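User: Design a sequence. Structure:
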């Protein structure tokens, strides 16, 4: 409980620092809210002044910051400048879509990455291991937006196997059966999830491979073999479990990144999630939405690290003994 209390206080301090830095950065950045986009005519100066007064933007930045922190303590995220909707409602609409994308991408990333790393660890030094090492390095070096565009052009535009964007087909989705709606959503999910998951799987495989190789050559593995323990049990019950410690770290950090950092992929595939919401808010200087996305990102990073620490304690008995 003392450890949890310390971590909670540290989390609150971290959140406050992050929110303060982002609040100052977005107010000092060039551009202002209510500016025209594209070929739209600019708003009348009097209308802009009324909007700034309505949202408190005519006050000094210190006053605006104090009002924001006070509203946040009360659980209020404010109202979007551009959408004229409560920010909490916009977040509630976007979060399920990003959670779905993040879960699918995580499944691809860690199942495929762990499988490749185990295979490389078993066949370390072979031609297959070197080929997979070069392949994962190549995939991990690809820009996310470039891979997304290539997959979209090949499987969407040329082959017409999968949809090119959106979360569902707006023309036919509502008329489909329950099973048809699920299939329609899965078809729209494949390309963005593969884009995120494939690059992540390559990084996971490269990160996890040395841990698997080190675990397979450790002393306790030799002792298990000397006691006559089967190869499969040695691999899964001993080597892989001990090699999972860096894997747990990756999982704790990857989920918050996928939840709030998939800005490029969601923009490429027009996926209506947190990433696209944050990108649009930054483009329009929608301060309340930007701050809400930042708050969510910081919370997810902190929760992800805390979950990783707890999983460490489950996977490694030495950590539990040290805690006692």
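Assistant: Done.
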């Amino acid at each position: 409980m003392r450890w949890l209390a310390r971590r909670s206080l540290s989390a609150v301090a971290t959140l406050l620092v992050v929110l303060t830095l982002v609040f100052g950065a977005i107010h000092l950045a060039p551009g202002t809210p209510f500016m025209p986009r594209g070929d739209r005519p600019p708003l009348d100066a009097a209308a802009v002044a009324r909007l700034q007064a309505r949202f408190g933007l005519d006050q000094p930045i210190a006053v605006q910051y104090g009002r924001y922190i006070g509203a946040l303590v009360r659980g209020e995220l404010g109202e979007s400048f551009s959408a004229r909707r409560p920010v909490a409602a916009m977040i509630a609409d976007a979060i399920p879509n990003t959670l779905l994308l993040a879960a699918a991408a995580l499944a691809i990333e860690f199942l495929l990455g762990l499988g490749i790393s185990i295979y490389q660890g078993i066949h370390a030094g072979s031609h297959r291991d070197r080929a997979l090492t070069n392949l994962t390095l190549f995939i991990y070096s690809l820009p996310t937006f470039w891979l997304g565009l290539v997959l979209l052009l090949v499987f969407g535009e040329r082959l017409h196997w999968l949809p090119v964007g959106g979360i569902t087909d707006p023309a036919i989705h509502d008329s489909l059966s329950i099973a048809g709606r699920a299939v329609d959503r899965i078809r729209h999910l494949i390309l963005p999830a593969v884009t995120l998951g494939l690059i992540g799987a390559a990084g996971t495989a490269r990160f996890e491979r040395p841990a698997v190789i080190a675990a397979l050559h450790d002393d306790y593995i030799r002792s298990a073999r000397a006691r006559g323990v089967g190869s499969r049990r040695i691999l899964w019950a001993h080597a892989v479990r001990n090699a999972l410690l860096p894997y747990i770290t990756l999982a704790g950090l990857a989920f918050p990144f996928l939840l709030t950092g998939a800005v490029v992929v969601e923009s490429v595939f027009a996926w209506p999630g947190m990433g696209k919401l944050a990108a649009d808010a930054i483009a329009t200087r929608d301060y309340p939405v930007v701050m809400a996305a930042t708050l969510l990102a910081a919370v997810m990073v902190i929760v992800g690290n805390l979950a990783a620490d707890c999983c460490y304690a489950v996977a490694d008995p030495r950590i539990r003994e040290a805690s006692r």
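The chain has a mean pLDDT of 81. The first helix runs from residue 2 to 28.
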